[in-house]
Amino acid sequence: MFSKAVEKVERFIRPVVICKRCHDGSVSAEGATLVIINKEGWFLSAAHKFEVIPLFKKHLQEMAAFTAKAKKLKEDDSKAARRELKRLRPNPRWITASSVWPGADDQNIVDIDVIPEADLLLGRLEPFDPASIDEYPVFKDPQSGLKAGTSLCKIGFSYTELATTYDHKTNKFDLDFKNLVPSPVDGIYTKDILFRTPEERKIPIKFIETSSPGLRGQTGGAVFDSDGRIWAIHSRTHHLPLDTNAKVKEGTREREVEQFLSVSWAVHPEVIVGFLKERGIEFSME
Fold it and tell me: What is the pTM of this model?
């Protein structure tokens, strides 16, 4: 059912790999997906996956303040200063280096804007060659109605593991991409999920729910119908309690495990269309 639609959508999605090194020396990488929407290189994705960008800036400021405070206490030879210096500890989770790779070595992410409550991020790839994509997405018109039970598919660059190392000399991350592949997962549209909209927002905070969970790396990817129209941007997997337990044996002991139905929550087309119109971004809709 979705073979032609998948072929179409794969033309304008790209992987994203987010790397970070923390003060305690730990290095990690995680994947996501972005959807390129026009010839200017504008794209959509899930906002929470890019939190490392503002967080890194915040941590740099905190580390600078920590260094300045430690220096000041060392210069103060009082007992109180020495006691405070002993208690002073760096945050092991401070991010000391980060990298966001948007599917190409020669591109950067610029002009970021977000609706954090809707987990929706708008950004632009720079530089961007419009000839690199021969077809751009068409978004579902939310005014045309969303029918429960409609078959939908989500796609993104899923992975089992992303191994990375950090080179102190070059200040660069080295990544293993062999497991980063586009993977589709089908399901049906079940219902809308509405959240309280902040007073300053003109765009309602809404998601759609589909009946299958997302895979690691599909976050920020497209949710689309059999014609390849984009209905939503996958945000996260949500777990619905089934009010029933399964009995599991662990050695000689038996315990009950609560059962859940895992579903996908994805940014509603009303939010997507409203955001793009509000920001004056060119896109197609039907």
Answer: 0.91
